[in-house]
Amino acid sequence: MTGSVVAVSRNGEYSFTKPNRDGIRLLAGLGVEGDVHAGVTVKHRSRVAQDPSQPNLRQVHLMHAELFGELAEAGFTVAPGQLGENVTTRGVDLLGLPVGTLLRFGAEAVVEVTGLRNPCAQIDNFQHGLLKQVVGRDGSGALVRKAGIMGVVRSGGEIRPGDGITVTLPPEPHRPLDRV
């Protein structure tokens, strides 16, 4: 499975959205250089309040650009970076990947998938009603989260729009993604 990078984003301050950049640098074991969520331990405010010593399994937030088309059909306008993601992708079924999948960006950068983003009420502050579009239920009533995935940086390097993405699945049995 291969795909491409549509956009890259980072923000050095806590904010719901992240400005798009010409490129970002991933730092092994830390996350996106200059991003407020980079670090060995958790940086998301709600998780810091629970236990600031937790490992940071949310160093990089990735979102599939295909979601923006789905949201547009429901009347919402969302662009890369506006939901707080660092890397916007195309052509990779991010939500269908198992835990431990390796995503290689360009020649050097590698992110290991840790789980699903658990969207919060801030999404409705951005656009009222959007939360219901990115969190729902499937036919059997199970919760479905569509607001992207999270990962940790295994190998650092630059990521730029247009870079290719190579997917390497972990050994079986595969574990489905759950919220992190």
TrEMBL record:
Molecular-function annotations in GO: catalytic activity; molybdenum ion binding; pyridoxal phosphate binding
All residue ranges annotated as the MOSC domain in the record: 19-168
Record-linked Gene3D superfamilies: PK beta-barrel domain-like
SUPFAM superfamilies registered for this protein in UniProt: PK beta-barrel domain-like (SSF50800)
Residues making up the signal peptide according to the UniProt record: none
One Pfam family linked to the record: MOSC
Stated name of the protein: MOSC domain-containing protein YiiM
